[in-house]
Amino acid sequence: MAGEMARAALAADLRASLLDAAKAFTAANDADAVRHLERAAEALTAVRPRTLAATLTLVADQPNYPAPADLWRYKSTTWGAARSQPWEKSWPGRLPDVREIDGALWLTPAPTAHQIAALGASFSFFYYARHAIGVDEADTTVAPGDRALLLLRAQAEAMRELAMRDSVRPTNAQSAWSGQPKTGTPAALARWLLEEFEMRARAQ
């Protein structure tokens, strides 16, 4: 179902917000705007993380397991929370630490058969998930209340790209006296937009 959080609607509003600067982005099918929105969504993950739950089926002495496709960072688990104490015969020993490496979750040390027998093979855990911009509104994970924040961050991405283009076309891009970007250059606008994004993200 289309809506204001659908990819096409977000891309259209991003282009409109860029005014004349939008003319610099000419890729077909709004590919430029989509790229800026996706990078903005990545940045939004750091300030508006989503907590999701998932479950792995443990195998004795196997340390690595596929991570959820949208995993940004591992958070925590309740597996073994009710375990016995070290002085009890049923104590399962040291529980694994969990790290994400190259798209997999590594449990170190690997769970043992004794631990699985005592605590179960279902390893339920929480993780921080990446945001996504969906073709349909239902597939966009950014909250409608953060729509303006997303577009602001996407504007910053657009200005960063324009600044990179200006880096090989230096004419009038910098002040002849200071060598610093002028107020109206893409580099200066990108910096201002990033500062505005961070300020608004903290305030909300």
Sequence stretches where pLDDT stays below 50 over 5 or more residues: 171-178
What fraction strand? 15-25%
Question: In whole angstroms, how far apart are the ends?
Answer: 28 Å
Structural class: alpha+beta
DSSP summary: helix tally: 5
Query: What value does the average pLDDT take?
Result: 89
What integer value in Å does the Rg equal? 23 Å
What global shape is seen?
Answer: elongated
What is the structure about, briefly put?
This protein has 204 residues and is of the alpha+beta class. Helix content is 36%, strand content 18%.
What are the SSEs and their pairings?
Blueprint (H helix, E strand, L loop, with lengths): L6 H11 L13 H17 L2 E8 L6 E3 L4 E7 L19 E5 L2 E5 L4 H7 L2 E8 L17 H20 L19 H18 L1
Antiparallel strand pairs: 1-6, 2-5, 3-6, 4-5
Helix pairs in contact: 1-4, 2-4, 4-5
Describe this structure in words.
This protein has 204 residues and is of the alpha+beta class. The chain has two domains: 7-48 and 133-203, no CATH class; 50-129, no CATH class. The chain contains five helices and six strands. The longest helix is centred in the C-terminal third of the chain and has 20 residues, at 147-166.
Keywords:
single chain; 204 residues; alpha+beta; 2 domains; 3-stranded antiparallel sheet; 5 helices; 6 strands; 36% helix; 18% strand; elongated
